[in-house]
Design goal:
Alpha-Beta Plaits; four-stranded antiparallel β-sheet; 451 residues; alpha/beta; Rossmann fold; N-utilizing Substance Protein B Homolog, Chain A; 13% strand; globular
Length: 451
């Protein structure tokens, strides 16, 4: 019975990998839809998640091994997917017996492409298993190619980072992108406190401890959050510690009128409501109608006070003025690849410049709605200079009335080390297991300062 169950789980993982590759769907959303509908137990969800994300993270290296051990020049797409899934289990996991992995893969191959495909898969996997304690590794004179293969990143991405940061940092960055990110909770301070939530989760068998930088953060493990009573009560939000720190950068105060211009799915919007004790007026909008649905769901669950979801045209109307504006800009998201490993394969180099153009347009769109003396925070989860420093420099040159501010004082004391010499917040190479963010803040000169 257990064998059949494990085989079923691998089939479900294979379905998810096929669907993600053929449709380009967001892997996290796809996983959530499929796993929720099937009502899997927590440990089964964990195995499927490990298989799908693991295969996606290690795709290039798995393909390299497939091609090294294959007796045919071109492996059909479906068979390649089956082999990726099987090889990942053989090489990177130790909880499933090799014979069970082979049997499941052969069965899938026969069902997809016939008896001959089953024989091919069987032979290749058995050859890999015989060599798995001494598998060949990518090597060569070109370090960019070697890093791209050994860490499963596209060559264009590695080449960019190599030219900017050199071999050691590029290799470290690529390796960290393949690590499973920690689960970090942000305590809703309007409903509970960190100590009370930690005590409740510990009593339920979770491994929980306070995070080191954000005063609202808990590092958690051994739990599925969606079924927890505290989650349903809106007492926490799942959010990377770096993302939590970013909300502090706006330095928002009770009584202010705040615009979150790229708000969905609502992590920073709801945090701003909590930081300002529910006493600021926050208007939230987004260009994506589908993502606004997520924003509304999170606002409802967390019961964030004084937050209104307003259409984009309305928040940018001529009669609107704000004390503070947050532009958490759409970007290449190369700083969160450990969370979206499919992004390694779906993103292209040309999108970086395309995003930079959009980012500057959004900043220019927001500027007329900012009050004199008001603050504008620009934020991305990109690692790329074109989307970060270059956009900030261009915007500063175009608008003399916008004065850059030092971000240190807005941050929790322990997080101030991530403000660089130029006054930018950056976690590109952080030592606290956070995602990678960049931020800069401007203050608009008052009326008497512009004359």
């Amino acid at each position: 019975m257990l064998k059949k169950k494990r085989s079923d789980l691998r089939e479900r993982a294979l379905f998810l990998l096929k669907t993600a590759e053929s449709t380009g769907a967001d892997l996290s959303a796809l996983m959530n839809d499929v796993l929720s509908a099937a009502h899997f137990e927590r440990r089964d969800q964990a195995l499927i998640t490990e298989l799908v994300y693991g295969v996606t993270r290690q795709r290039a290296l798995l393909d390299w091994w497939i091609d090294r051990f294959s007796r045919v020049k071109r492996v059909k797409k479906t068979i390649r997917l089956i082999l990726r899934l099987a090889l990942y289990q053989v090489v990177f996991l130790d909880r499933i017996p090799d014979y069970a992995i082979v049997n499941s893969a052969v069965h899938s191959a026969k069902a997809a492409e016939g008896v001959g495909a089953g024989g091919f898969v069987n032979a290749l996997l058995r050859n890999v298993i015989r060599a798995k304690n001494n598998l060949p590794q990518p090597e060569g004179k070109d370090p960019v190619q070697e890093i791209a293969l050994s860490t499963s990143h596209p060559v264009w991405m590695v080449k960019r980072w190599f030219s900017r940061w050199g071999e050691a940092r590029t290799r470290a960055l690529c390796r960290s992108n393949n690590l499973t990110p920690p689960m970090t909770l942000r305590v809703n301070r309007l409903k509970t406190n960190r100590e009370a939530l930690m005590a409740e989760l510990l009593a339920q068998g979770a491994a929980v401890e306070p995070a080191s930088l954000s005063p609202d953060a808990l590092m958690a493990g051994g739990l599925s959050v969606s079924g927890l009573a505290a989650f349903e009560r809106g007492e926490f939000y799942v959010q990377d510690e770096g993302a939590q720190i970013c909300a502090y950068l706006l330095d928002a105060k009770p009584g202010e009128c705040i615009l979150d211009l790229c708000a969905a799915p609502g992590g920073k919007t709801t945090h701003l409501a909590e930081i300002t004790e529910g006493k600021a007026e926050i208007l939230a909008t987004d260009r994506s109608a589908a993502r606004l649905v997520l924003l509304k769901e999170n606002l409802k669950r967390l019961q964030s006070p004084n937050v209104k979801v307003v259409p984009l045209a309305e928040v940018l109307a001529e009669d609107r003025q704000y004390d503070r504006i947050l532009v958490d800009a759409p970007c290449s998201a190369l700083g969160i690849l450990r969370r979206i490993p499919e992004g390694k394969w779906s993103k292209k180099a040309k999108m970086i410049q395309e995003y930079a153009k959009i980012q500057l347009e959004i900043l220019n769109e927001a500027l007329p709605r900012l009050k004199p003396g008001g603050c504008l925070l620009y934020l991305t989860c990109s690692t790329e200079r074109e989307e970060n420093e270059a956009v900030a420099e261009t915007f500063s040159m175009q608008h003399a009335q916008m004065q850059r501010e030092d971000l240190s004082e807005a941050l929790p004391l322990a997080a101030r080390k991530y403000v660089d010499e130029a006054g930018c917040f950056t976690t590109a190479f952080n030592s606290d297991n956070m995602d990678r963010f960049f931020a800069v803040r401007w203050r608009k000169a008052g009326q008497d300062e512009t004359n």
